[in-house]
Amino acid sequence: MIDQLDEYAVESGEDVTVVFDRRPRDVQPGRHGEVTVMFASRRGRNAADHEIVDVVARDEDPQSLNVVTSDERLIERVRELGAGVTSSGTFRRRLDGVVPPSRSTGC
After folding, report:
1. What is the model's pTM?
2. Alpha helix (H) residue ranges in 1-106
3. Cβ(29)–Cβ(38) under 8 Å?
4. pLDDT tens, residue by residue, 4-28
5. Rounded distance, CA 62 to CA 59, Å?
């Protein structure tokens, strides 16, 4: 997934940050090519969602952010903070348009 997002960021010119619930041992937080990788700082249900809300809340210009999610509660929370939202399905189609599945390296 990180490789696909990196290729997407390169091709689209968009800033991309991804937040995962858990950190695998072989992936460190930080820059991976053009993608910033973050991991939830807490454990439990919706851990990444809480991290995303914190990132949006701390941003000086939340209107410049666009969160990709289909989770209704997360949509409400980030919109209340001023961020835009793109559904996961819409983003997947956009990603596949830039990084066709036949070129992707896996998830």
Report:
1. 0.85
2. 2-12, 47-58, 72-80, 88-98
3. yes
4. 999 999 999 999 999 998 888 899 9
5. 5
Q: Contact at 8 Å (CB) between 104 and 4?
A: yes
C-alpha distances in Å from residue 9, one per residue of 5, 22, 40, 57, 93: 6, 22, 22, 23, 15
CB 16 within 8 A of CB 9: yes
pLDDT over 70 percentage in the chain:
93
- For residues 10 and 16, give the distance between their C-alpha atoms in angstroms, rounded to a whole number: 10
d(CA 54, CA 83): 12
**Strand 66-68 with 35-39, pairing:** unpaired
